[in-house]
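Hi U.,

Before I forget, here's the chain from the pilot set. I'm dumping it here mostly so it's searchable later in email.
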Amino acid sequence: MRLFVMMSLGFVLGVLPVQGGLFGDAEQYVDVEEGERGFGSLFSGMAESSEAQWAWAQEKLAKKQWRSAGKVLRGLYMRWPNSVEAPAAVVAHADALMRRKEWRSAFTIYQFAVDNYANRLTDYDAVLAGQYRAAQEVMEARRLPFLFGGYRTPEMAIPLFEAVILNGPQWEGAPEALMMVGRCNQDSDAFEEAIVAYAELMLRYPEHALAESAAWGRIACLRSLREKYPSSPKILERILTATTVYLSRFPASERRGEIILLRNELYEFQARELFEQGRFYERVARNEVAALRTYVSVLELYPKSEVVSEVQGEMERLAAKGVVLSAEEAAE
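Structure:
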């Protein structure tokens, strides 16, 4: 009997999806024509037109009533999505959320503006700038700040910065957004992903002021990878390549001296590695000819290395034992 009464009341009021409210929590879709006021709007404070709704929103914004202004603005572009005021209402809603420091929600509403009103936005660059700032705030935000100051999760901002780049590849702030993708990945120890972002920035914006910072970021990530995999010859070669590119593109850089010191360190490391290989041939493998050939390679490849005197001493000792290279071996 109770169910019959409630369903009857639903039909009387014109609210057909009563069953959803009775038997489930799913939100029911009600098809409302643009500008039409349903039963619920009698209590929502919706204005009679988009113009009136916009004026109402402006009053609330002027009073800095950001939360209620956001509700009025959302009501405008949801009820009158094709109105003249709708694009500005979406942006104003996002701006109001920024005022309330609801960075993720603001980013989402800005994206709604891009997805639905890209050709009708009066200041598209301002929307991208808003998204960029929201992404920065997400990147710098600290989780659980009451526990030892909290912790950052910069990786959460990566898809936001990537969306900014996708929305405005020619926007003047796109290089900064791409740089942030690299930094967020680097701060999250995702070094290979950071290297890709930095390399892309150097490729797409070679004349930008951030190109040098990206080149340095690439080297820094490779150095971090070398700390993790100190015996990897591939990573060492990648560092040498990256530093060569850096010096050739930015010869007057303030970091030039540091880059040269790094290359010298790698030079000595490679020389020492090859020297130790020769010792292995001599003392473990008992192959003195292979050892002598390796020592010769050290002198040829790393003539300025600090290990040269040690290499020469080993070669003299082998020569005293009668170990020599044939003409063919010496020519190899």
